[in-house]
Structure formats: C-alpha cells, structure tokens
Amino acid sequence: MAACRALKAVLVDLSGTLHIEDAAVPGAQEALKRLRGASVIIRFVTNTTKESKQDLLERLRKLEFDISEDEIFTSLTAARSLLERKQVRPMLLVDDRALPDFKGIQTSDPNAVVMGLAPEHFHYQILNQAF
C-alpha cells in the first residue's frame, strides 16, 4: 500500500485562475486566503510576457490579492535566469512594459534573442536583425 504523502507546495497559475485582465476571478481571493491557512508553500506562475513582474504584482494587489513579489515566477523570470547563467547579451524582442525585468542585463552587441509577445516590434527590419 502506498504511503500517503502530505502536500508540500502548490503552484497557482495567475491569468485565468486568479484574474482575467483587470478583474479578479469570482471567489479567487477567498480561495487564496483558505489556501494560505494550510501548511503549504504557494508560488504563483504565469507565462505572460506582456508586463514586468512589478506591474503584474501591482495589478494583483489592486485586486486585493495578498501576494509578495518573491512568490511570483514568470516566463520573463526564467528567461532572465537563463541569460545570466549562459552569460549572453540578448536582443530583447519583448513588450516595452516587460523591459524592467531585464534591467542590468547587457544588450549591446547581442549574441542571443529573447522573444515575447510584442507585435509592435515584429517587423522586417527588427526580425532581420534578430536573424
């Protein structure tokens, strides 16, 4: 018989789970409060590349979610971590609102490309540079 394991952590997707754009999903704040009452680690994840972690955090706090910045992990967080680990200089094809998440990353003379949802940057001249 398999041993019963205690739940140690929960990953909660943000967009569509806690909020949809600038509106909280009904009941999400209460569900988060109940989850906080359990003895589990909670981390919030998202694959959005449209905004910085700080902008996302401000949006969530305006919607009355009790979340701290160090609990949020985004695709931009993962990209920055990879850039730092590989020590590359990226061309950043990301929305301007996402640029703060790359503050301090060397981007001159790029030898890598980071691409996010940024249709305003997707045109032949920029894409040719990236290639």
TrEMBL record:
<comment type="similarity">
    <text>Belongs to the HAD-like hydrolase superfamily.</text>
</comment>
<dbReference type="InterPro" id="IPR023214">
    <property type="entry name" value="HAD_sf"/>
</dbReference>
<keyword id="KW-0175">Coiled coil</keyword>
<dbReference type="InterPro" id="IPR006355">
    <property type="entry name" value="LHPP/HDHD2"/>
</dbReference>
<keyword id="KW-0479">Metal-binding</keyword>
<dbReference type="GO" id="GO:0046872">
    <property type="term" value="F:metal ion binding"/>
</dbReference>
<protein>
    <recommendedName>
        <fullName>Haloacid dehalogenase-like hydrolase domain-containing protein 2</fullName>
    </recommendedName>
</protein>
<dbReference type="InterPro" id="IPR006357">
    <property type="entry name" value="HAD-SF_hydro_IIA"/>
</dbReference>
<dbReference type="Pfam" id="PF13344">
    <property type="entry name" value="Hydrolase_6"/>
</dbReference>
<keyword id="KW-0460">Magnesium</keyword>
<dbReference type="GO" id="GO:0016791">
    <property type="term" value="F:phosphatase activity"/>
</dbReference>
<dbReference type="InterPro" id="IPR036412">
    <property type="entry name" value="HAD-like_sf"/>
</dbReference>
